[in-house]
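[job 0412] stage=fold_complex status=start
inputs:
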Amino acid sequence: MTSKQEFVEKLRNSSLRPTKQRINICEVLFNRDKTFHFTINDLFNLIKDKTGEKVSLATVYNTVHAFHKKGYLKEIPINSNQTYFDTNVTDHHHFFDVKEEKLIDLKNEDVGPIEIQKSIPGKKIKSVEVLVKLED
Amino acid sequence: MTSKQEFVEKLRNSSLRPTKQRINICEVLFNRDKTFHFTINDLFNLIKDKTGEKVSLATVYNTVHAFHKKGYLKEIPINSNQTYFDTNVTDHHHFFDVKEEKLIDLKNEDVGPIEIQKSIPGKKIKSVEVLVKLED
DNA sequence: TTCCTTGTTTATAATTATTCTAAAGAAGAT
DNA sequence: ATCTTCTTTAGAATAATTATAAACAAGGAA
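[job 0412] stage=fold_complex status=done
writing structure:
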């Protein structure tokens, strides 16, 4: 359980003003035991449900992008019409259940080391992501 | 160099009628040495350039989806506003140059074996894709 | 051939996710 | 309090994709 005050500090430390909306979004995103996978629309609906307060869709977009930029959220590369985010920003991978459109975390140790043995001149590796698609 | 007749047969074998439009699309997609990464819009523009004939955008969508369904094209999981496809349908991976929005093939042997040591009850693995993002 | 059925193409409209805009409101500093 | 800057918001704009339904073409049968 993270207190509201901690979110206020987190936001201040990131030079993001601690507004009511952002704190509500923090509650929904970060006040959890497990990692959380979501689309903007998921989040938009959850905010109303969990906090009882409505935050405009534009603000949800703004805030998610701000948090992503600050490194508090990770974008998951996946083929979907919607963009998926993850509150687990550590280096890890995903299962994607195609039928249920659901993501499941895959720990690094469940995949083993991945050694990329090719390099592109002038470029460096920013991230390595494994996506394992699941079917029935 | 693949002849037009071969495309006609390929289409017939897939119970797709060999129309002028589909054959043109085949020429652009499959008459190449190297693997080809593209978005629908890339392809739409290339058809005009390479064949001199215009195919409607809707037909490009229809055909790409039909070819994807038949297994002649692979969809690449990536976070982009556009969907990327690949004419290389073998099991392999990708670099994505984030700045230039360009994909580069990564052979399986350049990545090494990936062993997924977690399983989800009732589900089986459909595909394993590695995406390596590149930055300058 | 000619006719018939079914599949295909097409322009255009509809849909959907996301971004933009500009005005009103709130936070923080002085 | 006042001022500046950041934030929120509704709604408009954009862009990719999908749906629609009418015209058209392919393939088969007579």
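[job 0412] summary: The mean pLDDT of chain B is 94.
[job 0412] exit 0
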